[in-house]
Amino acid sequence: MMRGVTRRPLLGLVIPAAVAVLFIALPLIGLLVHVDWGNLPADISSTDVLTALRLSLECSLIAVAIALVIGVPLAYLLARTSMPGRRILRALVTLPLVLPPVVGGIALQSAFGRTTPIGTVLDHFGIVLPFSTAGAAIAEAFVGFPFLVITVDAALRQRDDHYEEVAATLGARPWRRFWRVTLPLAAPSIAAGAALCWARALGEFGATITFAGSFPGTTETLPIAAYSSFEGSGQVGEAITLSLLLLAISVLVLVALRDRWLGALR
Amino acid sequence: MTLHARILRRLGSLELDCEVEMQPDITVAVLGPNGAGKTTLLRIIAGLLPLDDGRVEVDGAVFEDTASRSWMTPEERRIGYLFQDHGLFPHMTVLENVAFGLRARGVDRRTARMRAGEWLDRVDLAAHASSRPSALSGGQTQRAALARVLVTEPRVLLLDEPLAAVDASGRIELRRALREHLGTFSGVRMLVTHDPLEAAALADRVVVLESGRVTQEGPFTEVTARPRSPWIARMAGLNLLRGRVSNDALTMDDGFALTVASQVTGPALATIHPRAVALYRQAPDGSPRNVLRCQVAGVDPEGDRWRIRLDGPVQLVAEVTPAAAAELRLAEGGGVFAVVKATEIEVYEL
Fold first, then answer.
1. What does pTM read for this prediction?
2. Domain spanning B240-349, CATH architecture
3. For B174-185, how does the pLDDT look when each residue is reduced to its tens digit (9 = 90+)?
4. Chain A closest CA to B112's CA: distance in Å?
5. Can you give the three-state secondary structure of B69-102, one letter per residue?
């Protein structure tokens, strides 16, 4: 009975809530309305769009790879050890999430720019990060990898180390426990974190354009291409096609993760 | 193969302070109420929890010694630990679970799978080799976990409440299977349980652990016949009294005395079976009997015997038939006379 009473919607809240729904839906509808559906196949298969798409996939996948290689170990250490400064480190990892991407790009530039100490050393080996495809991937990894670390860290902390203890009593040494028990059990959360990281990397704009610029075929990824055609050449149609492509990918990630990510929020 | 452990470990409000010695080829049950430190004891022997002070040794191999700061990791100890929740890896098949310990100890994949398969056969799970643990019933899970432990041929077998996670219907059959497999294992076998029935059915010897201390040990029948703590007496279903015996009188701390017939003198314990406590509405007269004026503190109907809790000079439990209970008009707070024959009081040295 209490439930019935407390579950009756407050009219005063329904209106702003409806506005919220429209706020999300209207821009999407606007985008769909402006798509030139007849020419869509031709637009998508244009060389410019395909180049941007290929570059975007390349950079974002490299970014995910970087995030996996350095992010999973970090998440493990954060979740399973009592190393000092863990809380500070956790806060530091989340920083790229709230940092304006442009600031991230400038920060990357000041760390890895050609005139910086690290940049000079890399230059010596013929590696130039700023305004290169590798630089774009690095910028995307910088912005995307906190998603992976946070997801995996949370999943590891949610489960205690009981199965690792079981493995130890069965004779498994630490590395075997990590590979055979910890990693497989964390696999769903690693996949979810990687997908989120990938989606974020794919949509990355600010840090990438600041650190890597917008050179077609080298660093002009999908979002940057969309922005350039919208702002620079006034080709709104192409911008909308590119946006639709990005929207489709986002929806795809959401669908793929609906149980993992949305399920947890339900 | 003998296990010797001298253990001191504080954990929260628990202080585990005990010394245990376990001989091979017999099953020892560590019996005690919840929170007595039973699982803590197992975890220490397994190396999952370090000691504050003490030493754990199996057949000359020092697992841990705080004096010499030696410490063997759990994976080096070659123990078999059957966890209370059985701990089957959810991401592996049953066969992979059973083969895990062999693989971890360097057995090649083919041999490991073959030997795991043989063990699954022995515990009647061959048909479930490629199932996930989540598809198994409670009893099957327990057998799979047992196979996973035994296939590695450990030198010490530790079982934590092996039947607790299994529903009552499968327990009898499982207890039989467990006893059979325990019989084939030569080494130190140690199980912890809070269930006296489990201890009686599976163990040759019991060690009673209460609040981190060993209160009694010995063969099950001996322990329950002559309990040395109120918990054991309750578990055995006996009334336990403590006092001093002289001139056929057992005198309690508060000065109350019961007539007993015993050779023992000095500080002593005494048990009275609840059925030996007879109840009357009027004080009966006659021979060398103890008559206690009591109040009924509670009535617990249990099948065809009702347990009557009595408050009086001493606290007693009497067992009567429902008919007798009705005839005596027993009700909480009512007065009643409890009569115990001197010969029904079992006295033994403290």
1. 0.81
2. Beta Barrel (2.40)
3. 888 888 888 888
4. 13
5. CEECCHHHCCEEEECCCCCCCCCCCHHHHHHHHH
